[in-house]
Amino acid sequence: MSWSVQRRLGTTDAVVLGLAAMLGTGVFAVWAPAAAAAGPWLLLAVVLAGIVAACNAASTADLAVAHPESGGGYVYGRERLSPGAGRLAGVAFLVGKTASAAAAAGVFGSYVLPSQPLPAAILVIVAATVLNTAGVRWTARGAYAMVGGTLAVLLVVVVIGLLGPQVDTVASAATPKVERVAMPGGVLGVLTAAGLVFFAFAGYARIATLGEEVRDPDRTLRRAIAIALGIALVTYLLVAVALLVGLGAERLATEPAPLVALVDTGQASALGVLVRLGAAVAAGSALLSVLVGVSRTALAMARRRELPGALARVCSRGTPCWADLAGGVVAIVLATVAGPVAAIALSACSVLVYYAVINLAALRLPRAHRRWPAWTSGLGLLMCVGLAVLLPVRQVVITAAALAVGCVICTALAHRR
Asked: Is the pTM of this model over 0.85?
């Protein structure tokens, strides 16, 4: 049995893997529920989500350099706070990212096979799990093509939305309605939307989990997180502006596939096929990146006997194959029982809890280990907690229950062993 993971990734590889997670499900699925909450103030919600992401990224970068090993927030919380805090971060990451994988699979299914989305969703999870067991280097190479294709599709959408004719902002009665969640409206609605949009930014956590697999972690991790986050923020702002101009806030809130609706009703229906293909590619790339992050956190927790020991096994290809398989199975279960919008809200709430622990851990770093001021971590902590509790009540309750059960199980395993 081998316990070492090879350091094969450079800065560009890490940036692309982060973008593969960020420019995936969220940019194709998060706009309708976010617009339903924020209305015409959607851009403000995107900016707020970007501020939270920037604060979290600063804390993550400093901690990733101080602890260059797989596991991300689980390791940071354990080393800087307590074993219990580490377990909370680890469980939150696993719940959040498996929910994110389920959402990505749901988007894939609804775009590729609208009549039977669930079988397509399950199939793509199986395919992503198999590919991840082939090794991180291969996954990174595949992500290059996927990220490039997604950016090209989004550029087409932005051009059509900004330069094409404005369309009727009232949704047709024949248009299928997007899955709706309870929204508070007003200022609280903007904050709820920010929490949902944050789901789309959270892919830079994927970079931090690669601590043992990147060359020169001090330089690589900091640069990769900053570059990936900057590209994602600019992309999301451009897409949001295009959707608001092309569809209007009211119609955007009702569209299950707003990017396709924009090109279809903007007299560019022939490009709808391209957008559907781009959504499928983006969802697939998100699955590849997110499931790798899940398996690396499970690997770190299993090494410390807080998950079953089999998940710590690293196979001959240098990947934690059993952890990869377990993540795929859980993602299939979530994709079966939850719709994409519910999975997005569940993922956002869990990941905000995860980053709350990271920011708290970053506040415990000595000044010599920080390149960012301490107030960024404090602001990130407050905003993560605030946005999490303002998400739809049902998902908040489910998240709290899942985290409590997960922490109890991990604690019991740790004490038993």
From this structure: no
